[in-house]
N-acetyltransferase domain-containing protein (Citrus clementina), 406 residues
Amino acid sequence: MMMRNIVVREFDPNKDCLGVEDVERRCEVGPSGKLCLFTDLLGDPICRVRHSPAFLMLVAEVGDEIVGMIRGCIKTVTCGKRISRNTKYTTNDIEPPKPLPVYTKLAYILGLRVSPSHRRMGIGLKLVKRMEEWFRESGVEYSYIATENDNYASVKLFTDKCGYSKFRTPSILVNPVFAHRLIVPKQVTIIQLNPSDAEAFYRRKFSTTEFFPRDIDSVLNNKLNLGTFLAVPRGTYSPDSWAGSDSFFSCPPESWAILSVWNSKDVFKLEVRGASRVKRTLAKTTRVVDRVLPWLRIPSVPEVFSPFGLHFLYGLGGEGPRAAKLVKALCGHAHNLAKERGCGVVATEVSSREPLKLGIPHWKMLSCDEDLWCIKRLGEDYSDGSLGDWTKSPPGLSIFVDPREF
């Protein structure tokens, strides 16, 4: 079949939903006899991008049949940091001047799918090129994608044919939600911040972190955001004594940690397929025992063989010698919140070099040590020039993963 028979156009929600769902279903089946992950978009094919500042979905069509699709979104994020030219610093100053974020307009490609019966025809490449045209028209400087490190077809398409380069390798950490609640240590106090206070906190401590979204206020005020939680050693602060982030940073405790929770359960659901009857039975047994004998605190396997939801933990950070332990306490609090709301797992994504990674509970069998992010520079004239080419910059210790794109 020749390329000229392939039409790429914008997704039409009035007539394309069934065709898109069919392609999604065929792309997620996986090899016979092996476990695979099926994604149910709950009847909304653009659910994973619709909360971004700007988004677009394209479909590839042969005749009247949809054979592929791609989604893209655009936002402004931090790509580096600099010292203000107006700031003078001498060795007599107590503290050096704080760095300022360097922002860039960034696009993200996700959800690229091509029907198995129409692969190796250049459809994926055509979808990517058309999406990049929209990015350039919108003034985007950089485009990036995330894919599994061992998804050789995807990596080859973007690095060999589309001009992307391997950029960052963050870790996706997934922990099951057990039938029993987790105990949050009594030595830890957890305070829920309101959205405006959380915004002030994040802008003060995270604004120079790679991929930090300039519209963090939109994220924190989104209906899918379930809250931002701060953990401190008991006796330093309490919900009653909390006077705001400015007061907190005027006299911070020796250690603290923070994270926010995003309700992905209301966006999409996941389902593990291809498990044997033996594996299903063993998983069910752990849940029954955990439910009947919760004091044993058995690490039960959740019901992942039917559709389940997840909560995504983002904006994770902290300081001080006890920060990792405080992060672990926050993850326990987030686990209990997910249990109350009927989720199967909690997940987060952090830099592979993140110092607080040790404090994040996760099951290795559910997690991904190296998620691969590839990046491409689309334009040369949009940056203020203080950073140079972001694609050539070394990785930092942390990244900020936007929950709207998970």
